[in-house]
Write a structure and sequence with these properties.
Elements (H helix, E strand, L loop, with lengths): L1 H15 L18 H6 L6 H45 L6 H24 L6 H28 L8 H5 L2 H28 L4 H20 L5 H22 L4
Helix pairs in contact: 3-4, 3-9, 4-5, 5-7, 7-8, 8-9
Length: 253
């Protein structure tokens, strides 16, 4: 009722000064209200009020449709990126599959947009730690792209003599690999914990993200570290499902 009163006062002032133009009042400054509630508080013969009411209602509908499409696009990107990681690293688990390396490269590139979509849905509630975690994940994804290029160059015959094991564990390139791996681990921890706190989406994708953060230690001890990257794709797939579900159930999206 308070919102209706505020909008009614705005229309009343506008009616008293009909020469005042709409561009002096940003749409964002006009509170969104329930349409039938406002109509009960306005004079049905006030054409000026009805005109602006219609314009505000249409503007809100357009924004909702736009936001819903963006969230669904983010959901599809999460699904594709996660699937590419799972399939690509399954094929390239021994770093000997050209097709697997190409799928992994595409998955890393798309993951930047996938995690951005996840962060965008939570942006109003993310803390500084969550934003830091998101930044670390993006940094890590970007740093891992050259390693996928390295595998493609080696397996396609462009640079067959490259010893990827030596390159990734020595010198400046080894430091980049360490920073990239640490970025994923700490990024998943910070971002996953903050996503659990916000309670915007279902908690299971965030729990899987936290599990992905500690998996390197588990697999390192069991000598199955190559499985780690493929398993990261599962939590993106879960995010894809819940982002799509969120876009259907949330009226503000």
């Amino acid at each position: 009722m308070l919102r209706s009163k505020r909008v009614y006062q705005f229309f009343k002032q506008l009616n008293e000064n009909p020469n005042k133009k709409m561009h002096n009042h940003s749409k964002q400054q006009i509170p969104l209200i329930n349409l039938p509630d406002l109509i009960l508080n306005l004079n049905s013969h006030n054409l000026v009020a009805n005109h602006y009411l219609f314009e505000i209602h249409i503007y809100g509908m357009k924004q909702a449709i736009k936001n819903r499409l963006i969230v669904r696009l983010g959901s599809l990107v999460c699904l594709i990126s996660g699937a590419l990681w799972i399939i690509g690293w399954t094929l390239d688990i021994h770093r000997d599959s050209l097709i697997g390396a190409e799928l992994v490269l595409t998955g890393y590139v798309l993951s930047v947009f996938a995690f951005t979509a996840i962060a965008a849905v939570h942006y109003q509630k993310l803390s500084m730690l969550g934003l830091l975690g998101y930044s670390l994940i993006i940094m890590a994804a970007v740093l891992f792209v050259p390693w996928a290029f390295l595998d493609i160059a080696r397996l396609s015959g462009v640079a067959p003599a490259i010893d990827w094991y030596f390159v990734e564990r020595n010198g400046p390139t080894g430091a980049i690999a360490i920073f990239g791996g640490a970025g994923f681990v700490f990024g998943y921890l910070l971002f996953g914990i903050d996503l659990l706190r916000t309670k915007v989406l279902n908690r299971w994708p965030a729990i899987l993200m936290l599990l992905a953060a500690i998996q390197p230690l588990i697999f390192l001890l069991s000598k199955l570290v190559n499985c780690y990257q493929g398993l990261q794709g599962f939590h993106l797939s879960f995010f894809a499902y819940h982002l799509w579900k969120y876009s259907q159930s949330n009226k503000d999206v």
